[in-house]
Write a structure and sequence with these properties.
The chain contains 5 helices and 6 strands. By secondary structure, the protein is an alpha/beta fold. It has one domain: Leucine Aminopeptidase, subunit E, domain 1, CATH 3.40.220. The protein has a 6-stranded mixed sheet, with helices on both faces. InterPro entries: Macro_dom (IPR002589), Macro_dom-like (IPR043472). GO terms for molecular function: O-acetyl-ADP-ribose deacetylase activity.
Length: about 170
């Protein structure tokens, strides 16, 4: 699987699946979550409500992933995952890497060949960008999917992209 860094808007990616950095309610929110729900339209929210009513009455647990339609997005599917809130007192990096691994597992099960990821937990959840990139790349490089041939890490803004390129270069 090839891992590619891209500066851009995740909602515009021409891929099979986009990963949503969702909150546990699955009902939309701010940042990437809000952008995906706005761009994808009401079909995503409708499926998320159905998931809450059936499989996840208490919300999607941190580190887990679940798929819905992509609605009006160029992507066929949205894979929702809940990242951990950063804590300087508790190492939650395993949960962050689980977001990437479980999202890839779900995308692979759907037969998705190209998957676009945001930088999970690096926004409102406060994860330092440099470490968020390192965790994302470690999880993506460790994965062994059968269908996914390209994992895009879509970075919002020139500064975040430059940090990602620097971290990837080692």
């Amino acid at each position: 699987m090839e891992t590619v860094l891209i500066e851009g808007d995740i909602t515009a990616q021409q891929v099979d699946a986009v990963v949503n950095a969702a909150n546990s309610s699955l009902l939309g929110g701010g940042g990437v979550d809000g952008a995906i729900h706005r761009a994808g339209g009401p079909a995503i929210l409708e499926e998320c409500r159905a998931l809450r009513a059936s499989r996840y009455p208490d919300g999607l647990p941190t580190g887990q992933a679940v798929a819905t339609t992509g609605g009006h997005l160029p992507a066929r599917w949205v894979v929702h995952t809940v990242g951990p809130v950063f804590s300087p007192r508790e190492d939650r990096s395993v949960l962050l890497r689980d977001c990437y691994a479980n999202s890839l597992r779900i995308a692979d099960g759907l037969g998705a060949a190209r998957v676009a990821f945001p930088l999970i937990s690096a926004g409102i959840y406060g994860w330092p960008v440099e470490d968020a990139v390192a965790q994302a790349l470690a999880a993506l490089h460790a994965a062994t999917p059968t269908y996914v041939s390209e994992a895009r890490l879509v970075l919002f803004g020139a500064d975040t992209y430059a940090t990602a390129v620097r971290v990837a270069a080692g």
